Structure formats: structure tokens, C-alpha cells
Amino acid sequence: MKYTAQDRKDAYETLKHYRGRRILAVVESVSKSGMSRRIKFYCVIDNDTAWLTPWIAKLLGYSYDQNGLVVKGCGMDMVFHVLSTLNYKMAEIEGKYDVLRTNNERIYDKYFFDADTYTLL
């Protein structure tokens, strides 16, 4: 899917309100070949569930629909992959990527969302 700069800006503005929150992930389906998955992402705050899938998809350029975003690949934890990629993107947007890399800080798992401690439903 093609997203505009405004789509990505809107996605960033929405996602920044969920910074540091625990993410819930639902793997809706895996292709027969095992090479792609449909994953939904949520965040629960004060008993209110926010569906983050469209915003993550738009920011990272993944296609999505009501069944989740489509991520291709195998041989690794694909939820971690999406959240890790999101951490790098957020660091880049916020102008912190180069500083964090220079200081050898871990962007991939802790910067925006904790990619190590999501809940898989």
C-alpha cells in the first residue's frame, strides 16, 4: 500500500500517545508457506482498548485490513520484528537515531515500545 507523508505524520501523532505502553498482539493467520502473517496490535489503557494496527501499518508501510497488518518473512519472531522496526522508525522521526547509535544504545527493543515484553494473545 502507498501511504502519504500526511498518513505517516498522522500515524506518528497517534502512536506517540501510547509510548511505553504494553502492546498486545494477535497473530490472526499464517500463510500455508509460513512466509507471511496477519497480526493485529492493541494497547489497553484504563480498560479501554486501542487498535494500533492501522497506525503501525501506515508508519512502516505495511498493508493492512480488518484482519491485521501483513508482515512477510519467517525464521524469527515477527511481532518482535514489527515492534523493533517501529522503534527504529520512531527514533528516526524524533531525531534521536544517530545519537542513540553513537552511544551504542539499544533502539531495537526498548526505545518506543518494549519489543521484548509484548503480550501475545
Structure description:
This protein has one domain (5-120). Strand 4 (64-65) and strand 5 (68-72) form a beta hairpin. With 121 residues, it is α+β, with helices and mostly antiparallel strands. Helices cover 37% and strands 26% of the residues. Strands 1, 2, 3, 4, 5 and 6 form a 6-stranded mixed beta sheet that branches. The chain has helices at 5-15, 53-60, 78-93, 97-102, 107-110; strands at 23-30, 36-45, 48-51, 64-65, 68-72, 119-120. Helix 1 crosses helix 2. The protein is built from 5 helices and 6 strands.
Helices and strands in order:
Layout lengths: L4 H11 L7 E8 L5 E10 L2 E4 L1 H8 L3 E2 L2 E5 L5 H16 L3 H6 L4 H4 L8 E2 L1
Parallel strand pairs: 1-6
Antiparallel strand pairs: 1-2, 2-3, 2-5, 4-5
Helix pairs in contact: 1-2
The helicity comes to 25-40%
Query: How many extended strands?
Result: 6
Mean of the pLDDT scores?
93
Beta content:
25-35%
Count the domains. 1
Distance between the termini: 26 Å
Radius of gyration, whole Å = 14 Å
Shape descriptor reads globular
**Biggest beta sheet attributes:** 6 strands, mixed
Q: How many helical elements?
A: 5
**SSE string:** HEEEHEEHHHE
State the low-pLDDT regions, or none. Answer: none
Structural class: alpha+beta
